[in-house]
Amino acid sequence: MDLYDLGQYFLWLDADRAMNLDGGGSTCMYVAGASPDGVVNHPFDGGGERAVSNGLFVLAEPYDNPPRFTSTPPLEAEAGIEWVYDADAIDLDVALPLSMHRR
After folding, report:
1. How many angstroms separate the CA atoms of 3 and 1, rounded?
2. In this structure, is residue 96 part of a structural domain?
3. Are strands 68-69 and 97-102 parallel, antiparallel or unpaired?
4. pLDDT for 59-97, tens place per residue?
């Protein structure tokens, strides 16, 4: 896909902003903890490192919070009798509510 076609594609998506990132042989992707040095790809075009570089960095806090339950479980149950409990919780790492139906 050339740059013109890429622009047309983003117009078709109704995007009012887009960015083309060069995916050439000097492109490097780093993900903290994904490998010993964090680099997850190793493209090569024979040119080596470029004299002029740039970068796009996306930084986020790690997701490690437990869910916060917002529903109250039943306080009594009887052995041998099926019971249903709808558990609702908030995931503190994302804005979407979680729901689970437990039997």
Report:
1. 7
2. yes
3. unpaired
4. 777 777 788 888 888 788 888 888 878 888 887 776 555
